[in-house]
Amino acid sequence: MKNIITIKPLNDFKLEVLFENDCIKTVDFKKYLELPVFKVLKDFNNFCEVKNKKYFIEWEKHEIDMCADTLWHDGV
Fold first, then answer.
1. Which of 7, 12, 17, 48 has the greatest number of CB atoms lying within 10 Å of its CB?
2. What pLDDT, in 10s, does the model give residues 10-47?
3. From CA 73, how far away is CA 20, in angstroms rounded?
């Protein structure tokens, strides 16, 4: 499992993720926003509330999370 060092929300619903191996990946989160569980994140202010939990990211207030491995595989 990958370990996240930092997570940074970017414009256009993208996330910049720095992993423990110093690799930085950008994840386009727009495709997830169509899924019912992520719908509340279409509000950019909600999207920007993302928190790093090392092995996953979380939007605590909305009880939404995503594992680091998914971010690793989806990132470019």
1. 17
2. 999 999 999 999 999 999 999 999 999 999 999 999 99
3. 15
Measured between alpha carbons, how far is 61 from 49 in angstroms, rounded to an integer?
8
The verdict on pTM exceeding 0.85 is: yes
Domains, the chain, with CATH or none: 4-74 (3.30.2020.40)
The answer to whether residues 57 and 66 touch, using CB atoms and an 8 Å cutoff, is yes
- State residue 54 phi and psi, 5-degree precision: 75, -60
Half-sphere exposure in the Cβ direction for 43 (13 Å, CA): 6
Give me 46's structure tokens: 């909600």
